[in-house]
From TrEMBL:
It holds the Pfam family HTH_5. Residues 3-97 form the HTH arsR-type domain. SUPFAM superfamilies: Winged helix' DNA-binding domain. PANTHER family: HTH-TYPE TRANSCRIPTIONAL REGULATOR CMTR, TRANSCRIPTIONAL REGULATOR-RELATED. This is Metalloregulator ArsR/SmtB family transcription factor.
Amino acid sequence: MLTVASRLDVMRRLGKAMADPTRSHILLRLLDGPAYPAGLADEFGLTRQNVSNHLACLRDCGIVVAEPEGRQSRYEISDPLLAHALRELVSVVLEIDENASTHEPAVAEECC
């Protein structure tokens, strides 16, 4: 059974991982199915190194796993329950204040 402290840690890790726009895009893409770093880099117009750094962060947080396939690795959401929870989270419609700031950090935040 998870303690309050461990639940807070899970929330903190998920929040930090999703706070970065690039990691959020990667997570949304991985909800559609597994992907390779090179394909994600091409899809998002990023360098492979940048995508690999974000994937390493998500992996270190326990959100994604890497499945080795020869010389490359396929990335996917680490657990079907987590994937389901993320799908449910993004499907929630929130009432947004039209005057609220939508500030996105210019620099990637520190990962988990």
